[in-house]
Amino acid sequence: MKSPKSRSRLAAAVACAVSVAGLLTAVAPAASAVSTAQFKGVNWADPRDNYAADEVVPSGLSKTDSYATTYAKASAVIGEFRADLGANTVRLPINPATVNGPFWNSYTGAIDAATAKGFKVILAYWESPVPSKDGRIDDVSAFNRMWGRVTSRYARNGGVYFEPMNEPFGYSSQEWRDVAAQWLATYPQVKRSRVFIGGIKYSEDVKPVCADRRLDGTYLALHQYGFWHTDWTTPEQWADDLRDRIGTCASRTVLDEFGASMTTGLDYNGPVNGSNEIAYIQAVTDTLRDLGMGSVYWPGLRTGDTYSLTTLQGSGTNLSLTVTNKSGLDRLRWGWGGGVGNS
Fold it and tell me: 286 is in which domain, residue-wise?
């Protein structure tokens, strides 16, 4: 049992601690809720898809263009992404052929044009389908040279984000998390808050990546597509599936690929009527809105893709876009936190 004097000293110490804690609480800024809702984006893709053995060239660009021409073309397309879609983020493909060869001097014009317009740019590596599309890094040496060149140019540009690999389906969970951890260790000059680590397999599950403490501080890239389950025709099935892929990691996760048919006349604001695609898009955008998550639609522009939210018009540097499905755009904006149909 403590003496009266000891109790007095203890009471004074507690009172002092409470007073200091109160002062610190008053001085410290209030913690704000974390979310990824700031990413409102679209993918800009190569017409052949981004799995290429040679340079990846997003629709409207050309390998023969100069830096200035690429910059002008990209300025037009990015401006349309903002004006027509309300986007502020674009995800662009890279691979060793694009970065390690002469095309990089031109391709940087697209990246620079996007950041100049205030866009966030996510640079993601796609593997080559030659000799096989196996979900693994094709050539580690070329991969490292590529990322060395990319980070040396853009590590200090706060508008550029880095996604070490798109859909690493050839790796086990442990293998992929080891690869991702090694990437972070190799490029410490890149802030973790500017790195997107894909979920395991087809970037389809972020929970194992989220739980790996070596990857703390990064964003998580998740993919989900309606063609994965063509027999699911209720939004609840899709919403439950998406939430299961996210787990408790919504505050770090961006759905940086999702999409459905936009050129076939589907009404994504209407009744489901047995359509797995309508059920899927409605569920995904409702869930994104509920969880405060950002997203990057696949694709905002890809010539010849029925999922493309826009088509390209014009020639040279005089380019413009036309929205392919107003209801699809409505749902995309709804997922971004806007009002359906609002510009």
Answer: 35-335
Q: How many beta carbons lie within 10 A of that of residue 253, not counting itself?
A: 27
Q: What is the mean pLDDT of residues 48-70?
A: 98
d(CA 168, CA 198): 8
Q: pTM of this prediction?
A: 0.90
As a whole number of angstroms, the distance between CA 271 and CA 281 comes to 12
Q: Residue 26: inside a domain, yes or no?
A: no
Instruction: Count up the domains in the chain and report the number.
Output: 1
d(CA 112, CA 117): 9
Backbone φ, ψ for residue 157 (5° rounding): -95, 105
The enclosing domain of 253 has a CATH number of: 3.20.20.80
Identify whether the C-beta of residue 69 lies closer than 8 Å to the C-beta of residue 112. Answer: no
Residue type, position 135, single letter: G
Q: What is the pLDDT of residues 276-335, one digit of tens each?
A: 999 999 999 999 999 999 999 999 999 999 999 999 999 999 999 999 999 999 999 999
Nearest to 221 by CA among 290, 151, 294: 294
pLDDT in the model for residue 289: 98
- What are the backbone dihedrals phi and psi of residue 322, each rounded to the nearest 5 degrees, phi first? -125, 130
Residues in CB range of 3: below 8 A, 6 or more apart: none
The Cα 277–Cα 298 span in angstroms is: 14
pLDDT digits (tens, 9 = 90+) for 143-191: 999 999 999 999 999 999 999 999 999 999 999 999 999 999 999 999 9
CB atoms within 10 A of CB 161: 26
* 146 exposure class (CB count in 10 Å sphere: 0-12, 13-18, 19+): buried
Alpha-carbon separation of residue 303 from 45, 60, 193, 253, 317 (angstroms): 8, 8, 32, 28, 17
pLDDT for 128-137, tens place per residue?
999 999 999 9
The answer to whether residue 30 is domain-embedded is no
| CA 173, chain centre distance (Å) | 20
